[in-house]
Every structure is written in structure tokens, then in C-alpha cells.
Amino acid sequence: MTLKKYNKTNFHKNTFCEFIEVDVATIPNIDWHYKSKSGSGYCFTEEGVYRISNHWGRAANCRWRLNSRSTSKINNSQNRIGYAKWTDFYPNNETENFFYVDVNFDTKEVTFQHKYNPNYDGKAVLRNASETAKVIRQIKEILESDTWAKYLDFDDLEVLRKEIILKLIQTSTSFAEIKRSLL
Predict the structure, then answer these.
(1) How far is CA 23 from the centre of its chain?
(2) Residues 96, 140: Cα–Cα separation, whole Å
(3) What does residue 33 show for φ and ψ, rounded to 5 degrees?
(4) What is the DSSP string of 79-93?
């Protein structure tokens, strides 16, 4: 299967991408080639694109995430600069099963990734955008509270959390079905 090739003429049309945050000091004299109606700036290179913006996440028909080494949360009020290679862009739409859920159990962070991400191991179920969002909400509930476990019989809540979350990620079994199986 050959992936669509992205460049400065089509990267902004129905794509998913993870930009890596760049310190403005590393690119002091950057030449912004394009400014969008929403105020985001773009600088194109042969290998990819720099984007300066105060909004990340959903951008029109795209899902663009900014990965940052900074501990300050991306609050969408201040401009941040991200860089992505053209090969980091993947197709995106609301109906195809492009996404899988990824959980960092140490930090209790839940996110979604694209099936064309080179780290995808094929274990997680692929879902469309709305199904993925639903599973993420359920996993956050499991990680952040314990009311869902009120009537379940278990020895170690953390072990149970991980077991249920892995079932949610790796199967199409609903949260309700998983809980019923544990009664």
C-alpha cells in the first residue's frame, strides 16, 4: 500500500499530524510563507512545514497535535511553533477506522494515534473518530475515579484498571460488557 504524498499544496486537507514543538530561538529569522484566516503562520521547507499557532488539536478538517517537551500545558492562548515532516501527515476523516487509543499507565495519559504511525503494533482495535473519543472518555473515567468499580470483586484496583483498559483498547467489547463479565 502506498501512502498519499503530502506537500505544501495538500497538507491542510483532511490530515492527521503530530508536530514537534520548536523553540523560536532555534529559528530566529524564519520567513512565514502563508498566514491563514485564523492567524496561523506557515513556513514551508523541502522536508516539511513549520506552523506557528495559538490553536492546536482540531484545525478545520484536520487533527494536528503539538508534542512538546515543555511541562506547561498547551492552552491555546499563546503562539507555539511546531514542525512536521511531510511524511508525518496521514489521511483523516470522520468515518474511516484510522485511529487507535494509546495509554501511558505511568502518567495516566490517554491519547489517540493514527494507524499509519510507525509505532502501531496492530494490537489495538482501529476505530473512527467518534468511537475513539468515546473509548478515551471511558478510559479517563477508569483512570481518574473508582466509582465504576463499586460492585466489582477485585484484589488490586490498579491491576483491574489496567486489565479493563487493555480490553477496551484491544477488543470491541463495551465497557458495560467488560464490567458484567467481572461480576
Answers:
(1) 21
(2) 23
(3) -85, -25
(4) -EEEEEEGGG-EE--
**pLDDT tens readout for residues 13-24:** 999 999 999 988
Q: Which of the residues in the chain have pLDDT under 50?
A: none
Q: Which residues contact 35 (CB under 8 A, 6 or more apart)?
A: 41, 42
26 DSSP assignment: G
Residue type, 176: A
What's the grid cell of residue 28? Answer: 530566529
Strands 90-91 and 34-35: unpaired
pLDDT tens digits, 129-149: 999 999 999 999 999 999 999
**E strand segments, 86-178:** 90-91, 99-104, 109-114
The sign one gets for the Cα dihedral 150, 156, 157, 159 is negative
How do beta strands 57-59 and 48-53 pair?
A: unpaired
